[in-house]
């Protein structure tokens, strides 16, 4: 293979990996009611079909990033593709919901291996002058996957059944693995002397798991129940232990000295709060239309498209502005757009003839997110030394994913906590729920409360984004 063609051949391999991991999340958001109904899953089990993947994926992104730095990326990436493909097939033949939840956690290991190694593989392969193009195509594939994911998921469920939401991954994974075996070159690891902070990762996994357990149980069993109390205590105690341990670890999972820099700290906090506020919107809207309007999954998938369309529009808009305006201005402006979108959802959800306003609200959230992410990420990458950008990007990814998993648990907890017992499981039953007008009113109240909380979180994101330094950053279009 000629040297000039190798980067593009590699990009074709990583694009299949991005397609696989991104579709997996967005297709299941729409298919969740069908899966929950098939297994007669209660609300706790239904939550953990999503949360098990998100929790494991969040923690192991940093773990596998360090392992790949030590042992090389080709093998880790191919192992991720193969493992993800095999477990996807097994998910489709799961005999009960708890086996499915365990398989989803195992599937997340493969997803973390794929996500962790995609961008570094592209960075290593492309020459500096063409790296921006390679990264842009990578982002475009991810955006397109998010765009078509709900539609693909809805189509598969409506015409072939929920199992094909998982089995759809299998041919893509097989093609990607075989293509990668013949295409990817072995590159030795460059961090041979470093070690994985297993202690920090285990503490983070258990602490975050305790918080998610408390949230998922709090809305159903009550905040005074034993699992909720244990989960909250576990989170608080382990959070304190984590800060103590990380300060005395030679190769820490998170280097807290980076957060002494105010622009870096505020940009990362904005990342977390933005993810916490908007990550569950697509799931909530897809569930709402299936339960309240008895829509089939395909139509519900079409109704959440404005979010991903908006993200693509926002990304295109902000690209030309990053050379003229500061990250502080652009990121904060994007969050204001998200704030207006959240306000529309809070105001109009459940109203008659409100579909157009819900679509506009989602579009604004998508545009705001697209405008926010690029300059905010560039701000993070340009406020740390060059040799620490890999670590900085890993922390940013972990905070973004952590915000997403907490967002899902928090929003579902808020909605279900305000419902009577007979409606808690109905939220996941899709078109088969057959709820009354009075029940619909209660669900709408729960949704408005959830969107109001997310509106408040968006305002927090605006505040911390604005509080970064006032000097204008010199940004580049495609940070490495």
From TrEMBL:
It comes from the Bacteria. One of its GO terms (cellular component) is plasma membrane. GO terms for molecular function: transmembrane transporter activity. It is a multi-pass membrane protein. It holds the Pfam family MFS_1. Its main location: membrane. It comes from Heyndrickxia ginsengihumi. This is MFS transporter. PROSITE patterns: MFS. The chain crosses the membrane at residues 47-65, 77-99, 135-158, 164-184, 221-245, 266-292, 298-322, 329-349, 355-372, 398-419, 445-467. Residues 10-473 form the Major facilitator superfamily (MFS) profile domain. PANTHER family: MAJOR FACILITATOR SUPERFAMILY MULTIDRUG TRANSPORTER MFSC (PTHR42718). Belongs to the major facilitator superfamily. EmrB family. The keyword Cell membrane applies. Keywords: Cell membrane, Membrane, Transmembrane, Transmembrane helix, Transport. The keyword Cell inner membrane does not apply. It is found in: Cell membrane. CDD domains: MFS_MMR_MDR_like (cd17321). NCBIfam families: efflux_EmrB (TIGR00711). Signal peptide: none annotated. The lineage of its organism: Bacteria, Bacillati, Bacillota, Bacilli, Bacillales. InterPro entries: EmrB-like (IPR004638), MFS (IPR011701), MFS_dom (IPR020846), MFS_trans_sf (IPR036259).
């Amino acid at each position: 293979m000629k040297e000039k063609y190798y980067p593009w051949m590699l990009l074709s391999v990583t694009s299949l990996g991005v397609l696989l991991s991104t579709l997996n999340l967005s297709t299941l958001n729409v298919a969740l009611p069908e899966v929950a109904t098939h297994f007669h899953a209660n609300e706790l089990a239904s939550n953990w079909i999503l949360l098990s993947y998100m929790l494991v994926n969040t923690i192991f992104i940093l773990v596998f990033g360090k392992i790949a730095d030590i042992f090389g990326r080709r093998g880790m990436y191919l192992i991720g593709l193969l493992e993800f493909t095999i477990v996807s097939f097994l998910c489709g033949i799961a005999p009960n919901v708890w086996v499915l939840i365990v398989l989803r956690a195992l599937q997340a290991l493969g997803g973390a291996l794929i996500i962790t190694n995609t961008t570094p593989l592209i960075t290593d392969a492309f020459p500096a002058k063409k790296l921006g193009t390679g990264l842009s195509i990578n982002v475009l594939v991810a955006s397109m996957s998010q765009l078509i994911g709900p539609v693909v998921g809805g189509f598969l469920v409506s015409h072939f059944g929920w199992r094909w939401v998982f089995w759809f991954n299998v041919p893509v994974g097989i093609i990607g693995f075989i293509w990668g075996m013949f295409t990817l070159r072995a590159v030795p690891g460059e961090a041979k002397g470093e070690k994985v902070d297993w202690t920090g990762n285990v503490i983070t996994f258990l602490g975050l798991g305790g918080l998610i357990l408390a949230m998922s149980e709090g809305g159903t069993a009550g905040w005074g129940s034993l699992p909720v109390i244990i989960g909250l205590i576990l989170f608080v105690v382990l959070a304190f232990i984590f800060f103590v341990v990380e300060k005395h670890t030679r190769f820490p999972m998170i280097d807290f000295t980076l957060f002494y820099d105010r622009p870096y700290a505020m940009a990362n906090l904005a990342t977390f709060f933005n993810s916490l506020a908007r990550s569950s919107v697509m799931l909530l809207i897809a569930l709402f239309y299936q339960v309240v309007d008895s829509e089939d999954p395909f139509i519900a998938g079409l109704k959440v498209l404005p979010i991903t369309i908006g993200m693509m529009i926002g990304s295109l808009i902000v690209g030309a502005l990053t050379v003229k305006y500061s990250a502080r201005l652009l990121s904060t402006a994007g969050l204001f757009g998200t704030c207006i979108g959240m306000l529309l959802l809070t105001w109009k959800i459940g109203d008659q003839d409100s579909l157009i306003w819900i679509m506009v609200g989602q579009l604004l959230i998508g545009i705001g997110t697209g405008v926010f992410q690029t300059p905010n990420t560039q701000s993070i990458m340009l406020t740390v030394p060059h040799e620490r950008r890999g670590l900085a990007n890993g922390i940013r990814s972990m905070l973004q994913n952590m915000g997403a998993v907490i967002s899902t648990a928090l929003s579902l907890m808020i909605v279900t906590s305000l419902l009577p017992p007979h409606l808690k499981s109905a939220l996941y039953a899709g078109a088969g729920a057959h709820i009354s007008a009075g029940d619909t009113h209660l669900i709408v109240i729960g949704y408005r409360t959830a969107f109001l909380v997310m509106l408040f979180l968006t305002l927090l994101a605006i505040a911390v984004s604005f509080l970064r330094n006032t000097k204008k950053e010199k940004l580049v279009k495609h940070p490495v």
